[in-house]
Amino acid sequence: MNHVYADHAATTPIRPEVVEVMMEVLSTHYGNASSIHSVGRRSRQFLDDARAAIAKSINGSFNELIFTSGGTEANNLAIMGAAEAMKDRGRHIITTKIEHHAVLHPCEALIKKGFDVTFLDVDETGRISIEDFEKALTDNTILVTVMYGNNEVGTIQPIREISERLQQHQALFHTDAVQAFGLEDINVRELGVDMLSVSAHKINGPKGVGFLFVKDGTPLSPILLGGEQERKRRAGTENIASIAALAKAAELAQSERKEKREQLIEIKLTLLKELDRLGISYQVNGSLEHALPHVLNLSIAGVDVEAMLVNLDLAGISVSSGSACTAGSIEPSHVLVAMFGQADERLRNSIRFSFGMGNTAEDAKKIAQEVVAVVKRLAS
């Protein structure tokens, strides 16, 4: 069976070139980058080279990068660290209802600590209204955290417009760019963000490593206490092998970004065209205009998402829903609830296809054909 992996928004296969870098460092450069002897200095060189290369890729500077254990830690550090550092200036935070749980849960934890959090609504495409954002902004607001592109439906938020509204405001601006980095043209100066989160395993790098961009001068309290690594902002001996691998993955992603975007958009459109040709009834959840190139969320009429996922898996196709399967039941996606409401049928029949390395237009045709076959089988 020719297996098709179409769940790249969940995680991506690691590239051979990245494995090669990681294995070299693991095998030969075991020193602690904080040590002053030659073995430690060699590890420090890998760390410094990685920091310089990644910072350059987003138009940041060397000292504006904090290496983390991934996107979740980067988001937690941005939100919890900014709230702690800014609490004497106010206790209001603005976010959205469709954020990743690595943003929503820290915000909910801050509510229990006495902070006030506004969760902005989204329209049926998953996009916030700038007018709603402006109404929510107060003199007491200290942090705005809005994701760049959504992991379930792919909708891109108006990041530049938000940053423009914050130019004369005290609030710090953080964006979770975990799904966007490597596919979107990210320039932190043009975006106007104070903090930006990235994870390696979404760009064909290893799991367990990422970074947080923190604009120079941004108030931020550490959430891990220990040594003085990362300029006292993130304690813990640096994971040199994974950081070097992250830098290699970022380099490859940036060098191939334009070509990859075109390929991913072609795959998405091929899937839709094939579904149209085969006469299947579906709706696109999200926006095709303001969208990440690799994510496509479809509501397919007359099917149950759990049955569809199982049947596609048996056919050798790996996809997902925005739902979490718990004890045999489906928990509705908080993203789709925010977009459509609690009672909408799309909460029960929506599937996320997300493409990446190794996928082709032929894969999209195969997926469409199998989806139709499953729909007919379930209907009978």
Automatic annotation (TrEMBL):
Keyword Transferase part of the UniProt annotation: yes
Catalysis: reaction(s): (sulfur carrier)-H + L-cysteine = (sulfur carrier)-SH + L-alanine
**Entries under NCBIfam families matching the protein:** PRK02948.1
Gene3D superfamilies reported for this sequence:
1.10.260.50, Aspartate Aminotransferase, domain 1, Type I PLP-dependent aspartate aminotransferase-like (Major domain)
Cofactor entry:
pyridoxal 5'-phosphate
Q: Which UniProt keywords apply?
A: Aminotransferase, Iron, Iron-sulfur, Metal-binding, Pyridoxal phosphate, Transferase
Protein name in the entry: cysteine desulfurase
The record's EC number reads 2.8.1.7
| Naturally occurring in which organism (per UniProt) | Jeotgalibacillus soli
Annotated Aminotransferase class V domain ranges read 4-366
- Superkingdom is Bacteria
Asked if Acetylation is a keyword of the record, the answer is no
Enzymatic class: transferase
Task: State the similarity comment.
Answer: Belongs to the class-V pyridoxal-phosphate-dependent aminotransferase family. NifS/IscS subfamily.
Q: Name one GO molecular function term.
A: cysteine desulfurase activity
